[in-house]
Amino acid sequence: MAVSKELRGRKVDISEPPPAVQRQASRRPATRSATETFLIGYPSSSISGSQLPTNRQAFQYFLHLQSLPENTGNPKHQDLANETVEAIIPFWQMARIKTMTKYNAAQHFMTLHKKHRDLARNKGRTGDPGGKRNAFVLELDSLIDIGASDAIQEIERNRLLSREKKDKDIRFYQDQKTERKAHMSGHDKIFESRSQQQAERAARLQQREEQDMNLSQNFYNFSAATQRRTAVDVSTWADPTDSEGNAEDMDYQQPRPGCSHHQDTVTLTFPRRVMECVDICITADRLGLSDNQVTALVSATLKAGGADLDKFVISTSTTRRNRMLTRYHISQEYMAAFSENPPKYAALHWDGKMLRDVLGSDPGTTSETLAVLVSGPPAYPEGKLLGVPVIDSSTGTAQAEASMDLLEAWGLNGVITALVFDTTASNSGVAYIGELPSFWSNSLTGRCSTWPADTTF
User: Fold this and answer.
1) Which of 18, 206, 246, 346 has its CA 20 to 30 A from that of 192?
2) What is the pTM of this model?
3) CA neighbours within 13 Å on the CB side: how many for 111?
4) Which of 426, 403, 427, 399 is CA-nearest to residue 416?
């Protein structure tokens, strides 16, 4: 039964709360959809990623700052824009790209904020007259470009960066304004082509590891099969009598494999220092095998023949030393053969290039190398490669010293009558010619002529 009372002549029912209390009780907690902003999305407490931030990321961080308790009420949008720009600038500093002033960057953001505010006034419309919404969405997902007007020129003027790094920084900036496929890893720029090259390199390494495992497994299976076959041969043919001394019936003897006039085994003689064999080292270099692969291959071959590996001097370090010694002896033989019939007059060619070091102490790294060769009739009209030494730098002095060291080693000091090179400053500059060693200048004795590398005769 409802309870009632008299209140100033009116009857009030207190069995149910007042309507205002009912409305307050029916309110539900705010959901995530209530924080979603038209066309932008949800606020974000940080700006992250390996690319330069987009307009959407800037807007989402701006909305987060706007929702903080200290900024509730009527905060100044200009102050929030300044804080947003301060969070964006470190990404540009990491990319080594000059930005406009903080004030101008904040004004750039406020221009975009005004566009959004104008579109939000008509967010109830179902249509999109003029395609303004779609255009704004595309602009949101593009770069918030706060780069200075002379950003590219500033990169070009940076004396601390190499030519390669300058090109990467410029390409990265242009990519972020268009396709946005490149990424940053610290100061390093990773483009789509480089990512694809890294994936291909990893696939090749994995394939090579699988081939090595298959090779080892095949040799293991071959060795096991050889040992089983040898055991069968010995048990079958060593003694035609059984354990009791009775002769077995030879009519039911297992036939020996192969022709009767061919032997199943061949006796080979290997030196104790098997890795000193020149043929093994030459074949390994020709096939591009590593020291580990050569050692495993020779060891498996010896083991398959029933040899005791403890009686041989074989290891990875031994293989490496003997391969280096073999290369040295072969090069000395070539140099001796060349010195017997050198060209009377020869032209010296050289050019530098960054190459991957495959024989040094740190394989895989790139080094500045210099290819040096000579050409001259009648024996070497097409040229003879003298060497490809690694040099400390690409300066004219380093190239001259490396070239002269090779000329001395091959005994060609007095036969060079011409220089052939590409027309770079380090090769053809006056300072470079002045840096030539005196014995080179004396060997030319005024007979030298110079031609660019693209000259045809």
Assistant:
1) 206
2) 0.39
3) 10
4) 403
